[in-house]
Every structure is written in C-alpha cells, then in structure tokens.
C-alpha cells in the first residue's frame, strides 16, 4: 500500500542554519504531496503542496520539489528561525482518492 | 478561508462517561470529514471518514460502537467517545475537505481528552 517515510528526529539547529527534512514515498499512480506543520498544542496546518512531478511548493521560506524519479519530496529552508520549531509531517493523497497518508513526523528544534 | 474549529479544546472526564467532540467547517461546506487520533510524539492515526448524511467508514481496528461519528450536516461532524477509559486519553483531530476532488484537508486545532 501507499506509504510515506520521513527522517527521524529530533532535528536541532541553530537560528539561521539551513534545514532539510527528507521525505520519500511509495504510491501507485500520481499522488499529490504535502507538508504539514504542527506547533505545540495545536492541530496541523498545511505548509505547502505539489500536485504533479517537478512542481515546487513553497510557503514562508520553505520549499519542496516533487521528484518522481526519486519518489521524494524533501523539505528545505535556507535560514530557520526559532519560531519554526514544530513537528513537520510529510503526506500524500493518492490519485482518485482523498485518503491522506502521513509520515511519522519530524520534530525540529531551533536554538537562538 | 477554509477554517475548521473543534470544541471543546480540552476535556477531562471520569472513566465510564461519554464525551462528545464537535468539528465544524466555518466558511465552507465539508462533504467529507476525517477523524484522527494522535498519541504523544507520534503521527496521526486515521480513525474514520465521514460523509454528510451517510454512515462513517471506520479504519481497521477502530471500534465503531466505541467511537460514534455523526455527520449530520455539511458543516458539522461529531465524535462521541462512549464509556471512556483512561486508555482513550489522547489528542483527537478532525479535518475536512470541500469535495471528493479536493485533496487538501483543513485541520481543526484538536481536542485533548484526559480520562481519569
């Protein structure tokens, strides 16, 4: 079945460091790919998404490119801030359906 | 736009009682709503999918008589945890999508349930 694998955390970075959180997926067809962010004590918020190969989703300085050849959707940010500390979930939604499969989540800590 | 609310945000109850959690789409009509459970430091576990006016579809291993889901209108779904026990303590999150074609889900802020 469809699945999402993302790097284990926690990831600890200093402010202004470069961030990469790896995400790979297994799916039949052509899924849409998402990154969601969860701040402490809150629900999930959509951070960005891409619906087809080579699309780049971007928001708030974060970006991720849909790579079909490597089945990846890695999240990157050039300069993280303390306020980016949260849990990040990679997810996919399969073609023709609306059931979303989530990765395990990666906790990010950014130190001042 | 696309705001989903949940009520209550947190609830503490005694073992054996029932607890109802509401999920509302505030500015769109939600054809489909999803209920998730999240354990500490873990990912979301889909419990069930509900479509307005029809019975919910439960994921394998989720007791439908324990977790009653009602989706009576296009803007409201409720999850009732019946005869709650301490092991039901968790963070419950709902999400909604506007149509079958809409893949993006909009999440509520979550409800933290503590059963004593």
3D structure, described in words:
The complex is a heterodimer of chains A (112) and B (116). With 112 residues, chain A is mainly β. Chain A is 0% helix and 51% strand. Chain A has no helices and twelve strands. In chain A, strands 2, 5, 6, 10, 11 and 12 form a six-stranded mixed sheet that branches. In chain A, strands 3-9-8-7 form a four-stranded antiparallel sheet, with no helix packed on it. A two-stranded antiparallel ribbon of chain A has the order 1-4. In chain A, a hairpin with a 6-residue loop joins strand 10 (86-93) and strand 11. Chain A is globular. Chain B is mostly beta strands. Helix content of chain B is 0%, strand content 52%. Chain B is built from no helices and eleven strands. Chain B has strands at 4-7, 10-13, 19-25, 32-38, 44-51, 57-58, 67-73, 76-81, 90-97, 106-107, 111-115. In chain B, strands 2, 4, 5, 6, 9, 10 and 11 form a seven-stranded mixed sheet that branches. In chain B, a hairpin with a 2-residue loop joins strand 7 (67-73) and strand 8 (76-81). The model of chain B has no long low-confidence stretch (mean pLDDT 90). Chains A and B meet through strand 5 and strand 6 of A and strand 5, strand 9 and strand 10 of B.
What would a concise description of this structure say?
Chain A has strands spanning 3-6, 11-14, 19-21, 23-26, 32-38, 44-50, 56-59, 62-65, 75-77, 86-93, 100-102, 106-111. With 112 residues, chain A is mainly β. In chain A, a hairpin with a 6-residue loop joins strand 10 (86-93) and strand 11.
Fill in the keyword field for this structure.
heterodimer, A: mainly beta, 6-stranded mixed beta sheet, 12 strands, globular, B: mainly beta, 4-stranded antiparallel beta sheet, 52% strand
């Amino acid at each position: 079945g469809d699945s999402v694998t993302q790097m284990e955390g926690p990831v600890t970075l200093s402010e202004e460091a470069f961030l990469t959180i790896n995400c790979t997926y297994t799916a039949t067809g052509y899924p849409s790919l998402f990154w969601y962010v969860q701040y402490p004590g809150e629900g999930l918020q959509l951070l960005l998404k891409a619906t087809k190969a080579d699309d780049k989703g971007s928001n708030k300085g974060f970006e991720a490119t849909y790579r079909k050849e490597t089945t990846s959707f890695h999240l990157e940010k050039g300069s993280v801030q303390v306020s980016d500390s949260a849990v990040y979930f990679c997810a996919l939604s399969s073609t023709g359906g609306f059931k979303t499969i989530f990765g395990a989540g990666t906790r990010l800590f950014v130190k001042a | 736009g696309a705001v989903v609310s949940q009520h209550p945000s947190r609830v503490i109850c005694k073992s054996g009682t029932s607890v109802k959690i509401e999920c509302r789409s505030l500015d769109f009509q939600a054809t489909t709503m999803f209920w998730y459970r999240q354990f500490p430091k873990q990912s979301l576990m889909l419990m069930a999918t509900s479509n307005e006016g029809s019975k919910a579809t439960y994921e394998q291993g989720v007791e439908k008589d324990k977790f009653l889901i009602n989706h009576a209108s296009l803007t409201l779904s409720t999850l009732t945890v019946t005869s709650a026990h301490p092991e039901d303590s968790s963070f419950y999150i709902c999400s909604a999508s506007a149509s079958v074609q809409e893949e993006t889900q909009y999440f509520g802020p979550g409800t933290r349930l503590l059963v004593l």
